[in-house]
Amino acid sequence: MLAHSAGEMAGVSKDQHPWWETGVVYQVYPRSFQDSDGDGVGDLAGLERRLDYIAELGVDAIWLSPVFPSPMVDFGYDIADYCGIDPLFGTMEDFDRLIAAAHARGLKLLLDFVPNHSSDQHPWFLESRSSRDNPKRDWYIWRDARIGPDGERLPPNNWVSDFGGSAWEWDEATGQYYLHAMLPQQPDLNWRNAELKAAMLDVLRFWFDRGVDGFRIDVLWHIVKAEGLPDNPPNPHWQPGVNERDRLLQLHSTDQPEAHAISAEIRALADSYGDRLLVGEIVLPNDRLARWHGTAEAPQVHLPFNFCLLENSWNAETVGRLIDEYETSLPAWGWPNWVLGSHDAPRIAARIGEAQARVAMMLLLTLRGTPTLYQGDELAIGTVPIPADKVRDPRELRQPGIGLGRDPSRTPMPWDNSLNAGFTTGEPWLPLNPNWKSRNVAAQNGDPGSMLELTRALLRLRRAEAALGRGEYRSLQCREALLAYERCTADSRLVVALNFGEEATEMPAQAAGGERLLSTLPGSSEQLRGNEGVIWQLRG
Ligand code: NOJ
Ligand code: MG
């Protein structure tokens, strides 16, 4: 069978496409969205209060970063119980209320599935480390030490943790090392163990049965390691002063065939529940990323996250090339997706400035494929200085001073100009953006020149114009500061032109005679102004 879209494969008829193809995902980082109990940390009841804001923004789904019981060493990505809610965030009743309230507003809810590692406080790991012959010993990855030339104890191989330092932690009590691709408090689970795998698939069933609409899957390409755990080769391009992780190429520790096979199994499980979505966090070059779509017969995740706009320089030529390369890399059954921000990446407005962040928002919401919008980017939150004594990110604390800090992207949502921007009545767990008194939801609400209203207008247009949903993407021009492309269906053609520079430039010829639908700037001009993005519609 030659399938043309994931929808057809999931049993959806030809002209009915799954919701997520035209949907927009909004990422909520729960610690920083809305606090309801004055402890300075956002929670589920707070998020529920703000659901109307999210629905009115015009997005389709919420991806909620982890809310499960956790010692919070990596702020929830260290999970101590996959099937519970951390009291910091609320209760299971709060969760059930939240999902019902989201669904009542037509919003889907995706949770974060963290399959590569648990917390070292998870009962499974406590058992696993209790003795070498514990039945759960093999649920994690334990190995003997290597003995060095002078009889010294060495880790089993040379692997480096993504957070820096060896990926192995010595356990005195049982005399072996355990593997942790992330922090020592995040031991890697052993997906080669059938019982562990079954237990993790049960976790997915647990949440699917509770009505969740899908998952974002954390570091999916890490979940299986090469048999025998061979040393990773050195990275010839590595320079000291960047993340120590990149000293080696993660050849044997990531992107293994067995991880693809498991991904296909997870997909089959999701499909058995109907219209659910799997988004995989996978950081790989296009050719290898595309393989995570699986095959037409055995699809893997619906959307392997596409981070290319985050990792490259911001100019028309580079961005145009990245779009073409990504589009070309997709298999026939693959649906594209785009990311401009997250709780791990620098804020887009901090990286390229507010004027270009508006252009970037137009790009994100007019490209072909499912966009993920990160909370606060709709306000163009920019640089947020974090004083040294306020740094919370464990990645920054492990390798200080080389720009790995993620706290500036995780600061609380500024809602209004009341105490702590309406985020909390207590002490916010991270500082607010310094300009929160003017850069907040209430201040931008109804202001036609604001980023918030631009975002809403783009989301409205995207919903109204089929060409922006499922229309084809065609690159038109990519010269100097100008990037122009078309989105078209059989009966509608939209032209998008983005000026990446500060100088005015000629409109693309293809827009001539078109109706101007939307600009990132107020007013209008014969030319494309500096930092301006414009959308036209051409008829006939
Ligand atoms: C990716 C998550 O997005 C990040 O926040 C986390 O630290 C690592 N995975 C480890 O789970
Ligand atoms: Mg709270």
Shape: globular
Tell how many strands the DSSP assignment holds. 18
In the CATH scheme, the class of the largest domain would be: Alpha Beta
Largest sheet: 8 strands, parallel
| Structural class based on helices, strands and sheet pairing | alpha/beta
The CATH architecture of the largest domain: Alpha-Beta Barrel
Kindly report the spatial arrangement of strands forming the biggest sheet: 11-10-9-3-2-1-13-12
Bound molecules: 1-deoxynojirimycin, magnesium ion
- CATH topology type of the largest domain: TIM Barrel
* Number of helices in the DSSP assignment: 17
Oligomer: single chain
Q: How widely separated are the two ends?
A: 36 Å
Mean pLDDT: 95
What's the arrangement of secondary structure elements?
Layout: H1 6-9, H2 19-22, E1 25-28, H3 44-49, H4 51-57, E2 61-64, H5 92-104, E3 108-113, H6 123-128, E4 142-143, E5 146-147, E6 153-154, E7 168-171, E8 176-179, H7 194-209, E9 214-217, H8 257-272, E10 277-280, H9 286-290, E11 303-304, H10 308-311, H11 316-329, E12 337-339, H12 348-352, H13 354-366, E13 370-374, H14 394-398, H15 441-444, H16 451-464, H17 466-469, E14 472-479, E15 482-489, E16 492-499, E17 515-519, E18 533-538
Parallel strand pairs: 1-2, 1-13, 2-3, 3-9, 9-10, 10-11, 12-13
Antiparallel strand pairs: 4-8, 5-6, 7-8, 14-15, 15-16, 16-18, 17-18
Helix pairs in contact: 13-16
1-deoxynojirimycin (NOJ) is lined by residues 74, 77, 114, 182, 218-219, 281, 343-344.
